[in-house]
Amino acid sequence: MVSSTVPPKAFIQQQNLAEQVADYLTQAIVKQHFLPGERLSEVQLSRDLGVSRAPVREAARLLESRGLLISKPRRGFFVRALNAVELEDVFDFRLCLERHAIHRLVGRYTPDAQRALKQQVEVLCEAAAGNDGTRRIEEDLQFHRLMLHYAGNERLLRAFDDLSHELRLCITLITKTHEAPDTIATSHFKLLDALDSGSPAACREAIDYHIGVARKFVVKGVGEAGEHADEDVLSR
Hints:
The chain contains ten helices and three strands, in the order αβααββααααααα. By secondary structure, the protein is mostly helical.
């Protein structure tokens, strides 16, 4: 028997709308228009975006699954505030992924991969020279995504894509705590040099240093922010 079921067009449109709202909220969180710990108002967002509350709620659930929001019973959704322990976990997992990826990549470092990664670093440096912090974050993530792509393991790439949502928050913190944000871009040249050397040991050392510096600045910055917050509370 042939099914005569009509494809759920309205549902598909609703899902697409929820994705658009999720993209908007992601950018707003990365730009810190919504601060860590801040409650999101479904009513206000639906008014501001000109949509019903349903796609806003669906988008919030999606961002909760991506680690950008948390929900509290009877209180709604809040922007996730990563603490030092959570940040350490994110960077630890990232290091596992990228260590293995660069080890695979150095053994299959084709001219196409070399050209694509070098071009992406140049794009990243251009973005770092501008004032668009969101673009800088996206170009940074794109470089590392390309590394995993050319490493030739789709499961590694999917794991990185899942982690990248939380990494956006982390890279935002790097930008705010790094002494010279433009060095975030130029530091990627050291990864290219390691890959050009053809040495797995040099590549491991380069990725350990690259991610280790980022982790140091983020965790230190979050720790100092927490100390200042405690001092403010005690002084009241």
